Amino acid sequence: MGNLEFKEQLHEYAQWREQLARSIEMYREWRRRYGMSDVHSTDTILNILSGLENDRITLAFAAEFSRGKTELINALFFAETGVRLLPSSPGRTTMCPTEIFYDKEGGSYIRVLDIKTRLEDESLVEYKQKRECWKQITLDCDSPSQMQEAFKQLVAVRTVPVEVADKLGLWNEQEAAEQGLANATEVEIPCWRHALISFPHPLLKEGLAILDTPGLNALGTEPELTLSMLPSAQAIIFVLAADTGVTKSDLEMWRSHICSARNSRQGLAVVMNKIDSMWDDLSGETGYENSIKKQISTSATILKLKENLIFPVSAKQALLAKVKKDDELLKRSRLNGLENYLSDDILKQRRKILMDTILKDIGFLINESSSLTDAKLGNAIKQLEEFKKIDFENKDMTGKLMSETRDRQKAYASNVENFQASRRVFTVQAKILIESFSKEKIDVIIKDTRDDMGKSLTTFGMKKGIRKLFDELRDLLQDSIDITNETRRLVKAIHKKFHDEYGFKEIEPKLFSIKQYQDELEAVFAEGEEFRSSAKTTMTEQSVVVSKLYSTLIVKARNILKQAYKDALTWSNGVLTPLMHQIKDHKKQIESRLMMLKKINESKGSVSENIAHLKAELDPLKLQRKELSFIIKDMQIEEFIAKGGT
Question: What is the distance between the alpha carbons of residues 386 and 462, in angstroms, rounded to a whole number?
Fold first, then answer.
């Protein structure tokens, strides 16, 4: 089926994502309709819906120069244009990291960022928010030849003095000597630091995004690629050349940049490209097969990767076969093995990750809704059964029941005051917790370490600066632990009080934890250390690389603590909401009971009429429960809810 299978799988994934979004929108409407809607839950649901709408399957392709990586991208995704859409002919190697996607609002374009921006402190993420800093070329999607011409910008170079290249981190004396350029006064460098390409290709419109990274030089001098962009991709495809196997520079790139972005090796595969160079009529098909198997075995041993994750391919022949619709040549190119991997492994893996993320955010809300709905229906049934057993002819008994219910009403009012007092204490405590992650505290730490960074740009000074930054951020999180524990104890005490005194259904409160952010911060620190100690960075002591490493680590650390601040705020706003819903329902239950007893005591309506009225009140509660069950089934999360969201 060629690329059709991947297209179909991606289309099915996109449909599933849209269906999930519709189900979540139904749940939002359900909460609104039954009075369970609040600012916290609405914001949570809207954030999930926004995430689904903007979800992308990002495939990152990485390789040293001349491995046929861009040709592979053409063969996999853009063969139907009938041309070699991305420049991949000999001598036309992609020079700048390139992201390919579909920007529904922005239309079809190429945006390129000048290489000189590497001298600034701002990250690529920050530059992406500044449209005016990019040069834009509009693409004509009805003209593959115009697009092909426009894409030549990706390989554009300019000649600059060696001093300028050195400042930009694009000059290394040892490498220059190896290439016979030791005495050069000028050198060619890429025109552009980064490229963004948007056009309405069917796969891109359904959420596919492609990251095309140049060789070791780019990864070694742009920490943001190694530490942020590659790790965020759903899969990394590392491309080797079958005729050379794993070279020294391939291995350095693999160890220092690819493996660090995929510690678990999940979503990581190797393509052994250019197997057509091993086609040999003299050795025959058997000799050819043995040569491929030997190269795969050797490469797997060197890379410490399973052999079934190395895919022998001829991207050149695959592209030619697809353009000419030559099924036999396409089969011989062996592209289908890689396509099956992308379809069967990566898309399914992404689906699971996305679902886990959504359940983490919305699972507690749905479990809360389910528990509260069950409790409300259970209480109504209990009250009905109780009323059926009461001797309403006995006025003394109904009077006594009314008196007991009024006493419960007074006790309830008194304890609600206690709850409000507890909530005020909690609000103060939560504010202390939230402010422990405040931007102002983090900015002071970052400013101090950045000042120190400016004073020392040696390898030793770099290591010392990184350690100081992360030691102080660790201390900040450590200080938050005691505050968090105290806040958690308070929340549990408030919930326990109402469970013990009113028999409220015990809904385990969602507790806030610092550990996730501590682990993420430690991972960033480890990544920074690995990048800093790599052979490429050790040899390259230009200030621009040091500065970029610091900037990248700071952006990642700031984002982690920003998320901690946001999560603490969201948690504090919503953790008491289930209890407040139960308090509101409890109040309605007491008032309903009192009104019914009053009507019976005053002989307004027969007992049977009042019981019939109670039975009728069960119907909307049953409908509410039925609708929620349908939504849970529509989301395909029945098993998760049955386990209580664990």
Answer: 74
* C-beta separation of 59 from 342 below 8 A: yes
Q: Tens of pLDDT along 349-401?
A: 888 888 988 888 888 889 888 888 888 888 888 878 877 776 666 667 767 77
Residue 576 lies in a domain: yes
Tokens of 86: 């991305």
Domain containing 497 — which CATH number?
A: 1.20.1330
Residue type present at position 520: E
Question: Within a 10 A sphere around the Cβ of 74, how many other Cβ atoms?
Answer: 24
Q: Do the domain assignments include residue 636?
A: no
Specify whether the backbone of 642 is left (phi greater than 0), alpha (psi in -120 to 50) or beta: alpha
Average pLDDT of the chain, as a whole number: 82
Domain boundary residue, one of 166, 190, 214: 190
Q: Take residue 535 and report the two structure tokens written for it.
A: 């052979």
Helix, coil or strand: residue 472? helix
Q: What is the mean pLDDT of residues 276-300?
A: 83
CA distances to 122, 311, 327, 444 from 447, in Å: 14, 47, 60, 5
Q: Please report the pLDDT score of residue 403 as a whole number.
A: 80
The pLDDT confidence band at residue 634, using thresholds 50, 70 and 90, is: very high
Burial of 447-483, coded b for 16+ CB within 10 Å and e otherwise, reads eebbeebeeebeeeebeebbeebbebbeebbeebeeb
Provide the residue range defining the domain that includes 178. 157-190
Instruction: State how many domains the chain has.
Output: 2
Q: Is residue 75 part of a domain?
A: no
Q: How far apart are CA 2 and CA 327, in angstroms?
A: 9
pLDDT at position 551 over 80? no
Q: What is the pLDDT of residues 441-453, one digit of tens each?
A: 888 888 877 777 6
Nearest to 121 by CA among 454, 438, 526, 525: 454
Looking at beta carbons, which pairs linking 613-617 to residues 24 or more positions away fall under 8 Å? 614/380, 614/383, 614/384, 614/387, 615/384, 617/380, 617/592
Domain assignment of residue 377, yes or no:
no
φ, ψ at 54 (rounded to 5°) = -100, 10
Task: Copy the structure tokens of residue 333.
Answer: 């190119």
State pTM to two decimals. 0.78
Average pLDDT over residues 577-605: 74
DSSP 360-427: HHHHHHHHHHHHHHHHHHHHHHHHHHHHHHS-TT-HHHHHHHHHHHHHHHHHHHHHHHHHHHHHHHHH
Q: Is the dihedral of CA 95, 100, 105, 107 positive or negative?
A: positive
Question: Which residues share a beta bridge with 268?
Answer: 236
- Which one of 190, 214, 237 terminates a domain? 190
The yes-or-no verdict on residue 1 having pLDDT over 60 is: no
Query: What's the confidence (pLDDT) of residue 286?
Result: 79
* Ramachandran category for residue 267: left, alpha or beta (phi over 0 → left; psi -120 to 50 → alpha): left
Q: Give the total residue count for the chain.
A: 646
User: How many Cβ atoms sit within 10 Å of the Cβ of residue 211?
Assistant: 21
Spell out the alpha helix ranges (H) of 275-394. 284-303, 315-324, 327-333, 335-341, 347-389
What is the average per-residue pLDDT within 303-328? 94
**Number of Cβ within a 10 Å radius of residue 131:** 10
3-state secondary structure of 562: helix
